[in-house]
Structures are given as structure tokens and as C-alpha cells.
Automatic annotation (TrEMBL):
Native organism taxonomy: Bacteria, Bacillati, Actinomycetota, Actinomycetes, Propionibacteriales
CDD domains per the UniProt record, alphabetical: SDR_c (cd05233)
Protein name listed in UniProt: SDR family oxidoreductase
Superkingdom of this protein's organism: Bacteria
InterPro entries: NAD(P)-bd_dom_sf, SDR_fam
Length: 218
């Protein structure tokens, strides 16, 4: 297939949906991994109307075998993966004195571990110029103690992005975490569409200007 392909992990109605639409508008075909079949169907219809070929898989991305198989199927079908965008995180309103170890590890498995799973599955289909992007958050640096696991996830996924970028850079593949330093809203600088624009810009950064973390301050 001649069109570039983006795989959106954690596809939903917010930032990830806006990312899928932005890349579709820029000429990408789209593969979606998400948990809500109704949302996936709506996104598929929307993206198809924008001219994109769309595939989707409804699954729990913490199911390593299912997530690997889905990404592999997308790659085998398209022959290429040019961008992998990772969006999932778990919001659990528990402070550090009520959060259990099991809950923390379950949340990290979603917000950090699933990035490993999907990148490893996508790597055989990625070549020089391919990119990995992650929706980061100011919670990595300024955690809200009443949702303690979220800050751990965002700090962890940012750290993993730095390692991925260093590991893949010799092959011409780069990774970036876009740190959203504000609360998502329906209007203003932090709408999902504006964040998606920032992710698009980060992915399009020239190699000689590349940074593995890009802040988005609105």
C-alpha cells in the first residue's frame, strides 16, 4: 500500500480520536485498537468519509497476546506502519494510602506496559522515518495525589519513550512524548483537536531538531 499508515492504540472519543482524524486528513490510512466497539464503529465511519482505509480491533490492550496479534495483522495487511500513537492510561481516584500494589501494577500495565507490547509488535513493519508518539501529561511532574497511579503511569511512559527513542534512533525510527501541560477542555487551547495538532507537529519534527519529549503549553 502506498499511503502511510498510523496505528492508534487506545482509540476513543478524545485525543486519540482527534489524532486519528488529523492523520487521516493528512493522507494516512488508520488502524484502531480500542475497547468500545460503538466508538470504534463511529470513528471508522468518520475516518472512511475522510478518505482513509480503516481497520479496527476491539480488545483490552493489556492482553499481550491479543494486542500483539492485532498489531501484527494490521502490519501484515498494510505492509507498513509509519506511526504508532499510544494514548491509554488508567484514571483511578485513590491516594497513595488507599491504592493497593495490585491496582498500581494493573494501571501501569495499561499506561506503560501496553506501549512495550504494541511497539514490539509493530517494529517489524516500521522502517527509517517511522515514528512513535505518546500522549503525555503534566501529571508526570505534578501528580494529583488523589489519583496517584496516573502520575506514575505518565512518568513511566515518558521514561520508556526516552529509552525507545535511543534504542531505535540508529535505525532512523524516533519516539516522542507530547507532554500536555493543561487540562483537556471543549474549548480553548487544550481541546483534543488542538492537542492532536501538537502531536502531528511533534511527529513531523525534522531529524536534526528531534527531541523525545515535547511540551504542549497551549
Amino acid at each position: 500500500m502506498s499511503k502511510p499508515v498510523i496505528v492508534v492504540v487506545g482509540a476513543g472519543p478524545g485525543v486519540s480520536g482527534s489524532v486519528a482524524r488529523r492523520f487521516a486528513d493528512e493522507g494516512h490510512d488508520v488502524a484502531l485498537l480500542g475497547q468500545d466497539q460503538q466508538v470504534l464503529d463511529q470513528l471508522t465511519t468518520d475516518l472512511g468519509a475522510r478518505g482513509a482505509a480503516v481497520g479496527h480491533a476491539c480488545l483490552d490492550v493489556t492482553d499481550e497476546e491479543a494486542a500483539r496479534d492485532a498489531v501484527r495483522r494490521f502490519g501484515e495487511h498494510t505492509g507498513r506502519i509509519d506511526v504508532l500513537h499510544f494514548n491509554p492510561s488508567a484514571f483511578r481516584e485513590k491516594d497513595p494510602l488507599s491504592l493497593t500494589v495490585a491496582e498500581l501494577l494493573a494501571d501501569v500495565a495499561l499506561g506503560v506496559g501496553a506501549l512495550l507490547t504494541t511497539v514490539q509488535a509493530a517494529r517489524p513493519f516500521m522502517s527509517a522515518g517511522a515514528r512513535i508518539s505518546v500522549t503525555g501529561s503534566m501529571a508526570a511532574d505534578q501528580p494529583w495525589e488523589r489519583a496517584a497511579s496516573l502520575g506514575v503511569q505518565k512518568a513511566g511512559v515518558r521514561n520508556l519513550v526516552h529509552s525507545l527513542d535511543k534504542t531505535l534512533a540508529p535505525d532512523g525510527i524516533r519516539a516522542v512524548s507530547v507532554t500536555v501541560r493543561g487540562s483537556l477542555a471543549r474549548q480553548g487551547a487544550f481541546t483534543p483537536d488542538r492537542v492532536a495538532d501538537a502531536i502531528w507537529d511533534a511527529v513531523r519534527t525534522p531529524e536534526d531538531e528531534w527531541r523525545s519529549e515535547v511540551p504542549y503549553d497551549g
